[in-house]
Amino acid sequence: MANTSDISRGMIIKLDGSLYTVVEFGENKTARAAAKVWAKLKGVDNSRSIEKTWNSGDTIHPVRVERKTYQFLYKDDTGYNFMDNETFEQIALAETLVDAPQFLKEAQEVSVLINTETEQPMSVELPDKIVLKVTYSEPGVKGDTATRTLKPATVETGATVNVPLFVNEGELIRINTKTGEYVERVKE
């Protein structure tokens, strides 16, 4: 058991029978009323996003989670297949459990969150930023790089990312996996 003062970003809590991860939280204090704690929550076992408010000091139910490093192997009819880097055990997970599956490439290292009570995988998180190769992009026009104009580019995983005009086919770019946005060009 814990109370609202223990809430932190990334914590997973059980609420109304479902599991949610804390995306953002804060406290509202007013002169007349008791302090309230609010949190933006994203569903772990469902795709809902909700906001919840508690009175300060209320009891919450955190879920113990273990983070393990897995390697992405391949995708087939059973789902996305991952291998534990320590035990070499393989698991297949549904696409709904994978955060940003469009950026997964073979041999990519990911973090799998496992519920320690049930030993069930809850979600797969990619690193915040990854480097991918641009496989297709329209060539940029020389001298047309002064403005922050973007063009679509296809990366090696098949996903489309908007990139600045100076990025060309065959170059490596860093992508933010949370937002799906271009961050910078990477020198080989």
UniProtKB/TrEMBL annotation:
A single BP term in Gene Ontology: peptide biosynthetic process
GO molecular function (one): translation elongation factor activity
Location within or outside the cell: Cytoplasm
Gene Ontology, cellular component aspect: cytosol
Keywords: Cytoplasm, Elongation factor, Protein biosynthesis
Keyword match Coiled coil: no
Keyword check for Repeat: no
Domain Elongation factor P C-terminal: start-end pairs: 130-185
Domain Translation elongation factor P/YeiP central: 67-122
Pathway: Protein biosynthesis; polypeptide chain elongation
Domain of life, per lineage: Bacteria
SMART domains in the record: EFP (SM01185), Elong-fact-P_C (SM00841)
NCBIfam families registered for this protein in UniProt: efp (TIGR00038), PRK00529.1 (NF001810)
Listed PANTHER family: ELONGATION FACTOR P (PTHR30053), ELONGATION FACTOR P (EF-P) FAMILY PROTEIN (PTHR30053:SF12)
Homology family: Belongs to the elongation factor P family.
Function in brief: Involved in peptide bond synthesis. Stimulates efficient translation and peptide-bond synthesis on native or reconstituted 70S ribosomes in vitro. Probably functions indirectly by altering the affinity of the ribosome for aminoacyl-tRNA, thus increasing their reactivity as acceptors for peptidyl transferase.
Name this polypeptide is given: Elongation factor P
